[in-house]
Amino acid sequence: MSECSSDGEIDYSPTIDVSSLPEVVQNRVKALKNLQLQTVKAESDYYKEVHQLDVKYQKLYDEINKKRGTILSGEYEPSGAEIEWKNKEEEEEKAEGDVKALTNGIDKMTVVDYDENTKGIPKFWMYALKNANDECLMGM
Fold first, then answer.
1. Beta bridge partners of residue 10, listed in sequence order
2. In contact, 78 and 71? CB cutoff 8 Å
3. Smallest Cα–Cα separation from 125: which of 71, 61, 75?
4. Going residue by residue through the chain (140 aa), what tens digit of pLDDT does each one get?
5. In whole angstroms, what is the distance from residue 66 CA to residue 69 CA?
6. What does pTM read for this prediction?
7. What is the CA radius of gyration of the chain?
8. Which sign, positive or negative, has the C-alpha torsion 128, 133, 135, 136?
9. How far apart are CA 74 and CA 114, in angstroms?
């Protein structure tokens, strides 16, 4: 049934006349086609549900990003529960009581151009993207 070329490889024919195959083989091909159709339908349903979830959560992401933008620009000042953050590492350092050794005797570092009157977080995205790029390049 298959013809070999001069190098021993089977010649590829892009189309097969299924009607020329035995009936049992034709039935197997039909069964495989039905299974493929079921797979396509299941995949279609899957992507519809994923899209619905994307739409649902995009609204939440948009709200969060809008609030993030107002904090970064200085339009909104977070307070109360919004500024509470529990960091296990900080708690462990405080529990050890050896903070002076960790800071080499430096009580407090100040960052130039930032004080109590600074509005928002200047150059936040510049630093975030710069640091993200540095992290990415470290793996190279």
1. 4
2. yes
3. 71
4. 455 566 667 776 677 788 888 999 999 999 999 999 999 999 999 999 999 999 999 999 999 999 999 998 889 999 999 888 887 776 666 656 555 555 555 555 556 667 777 888 888 877 787 777 766 666 65
5. 5
6. 0.49
7. 32
8. positive
9. 13
